[in-house]
């Protein structure tokens, strides 16, 4: 998509899921963007593998033709600027593994959305007091259907 609609100098952001091919994706994006950052926003759960690929300053290789994209992605040079290497050669693993710059956004010491925390004490030392809702929850539209189904099942069993 990027190679067909983005102008030179453009930016691209995509939600990704970190996994075994993240290094390969990073190297492929580096072919088209000099600045690639993988970031995890503070709002994302710590247990989630989601992240965002933030790519800046779109600049395709000289003479690039979008029809040749598949052939280009089969050969990826190292991000340090080394010569092109075949992705199937395994250079993304072992001692040659590419380590991706990863940015964790926000305060890492902040609250974790996967945990429960004790309620804070009030300034005067009293404990937290729960208040009733201003308006009770609305009945779901399917509530009547569930009541009818239950009544039908009861009359069938008797």
Short description:
The chain is an alpha+beta fold.
Secondary structure: number of strands: 6
Quick one: biggest sheet?
4 strands, mixed
Q: Would you list the SSEs in sequence order as H and E? A: HEHEEHEEEH
Question: Which shape, going by the Cα principal axes?
Answer: extended
Give your account of this protein's structure:
22% of the residues lie in helices and 18% in strands. The strands form two sheets. The protein has a four-stranded mixed β-sheet, with helices on one face. It contains four helices and six strands, in the order αβαββαβββα. It has a domain at 2-105. β4 and β5 form a beta hairpin. The protein is extended. It holds the Pfam family FtsJ. InterPro entries: RNA_methyltr_RlmE (IPR050082), RNA_MeTrfase_FtsJ_dom (IPR002877), SAM-dependent_MTases_sf (IPR029063). Keywords: Methyltransferase, S-adenosyl-L-methionine, Transferase. This is Ribosomal RNA methyltransferase FtsJ domain-containing protein.
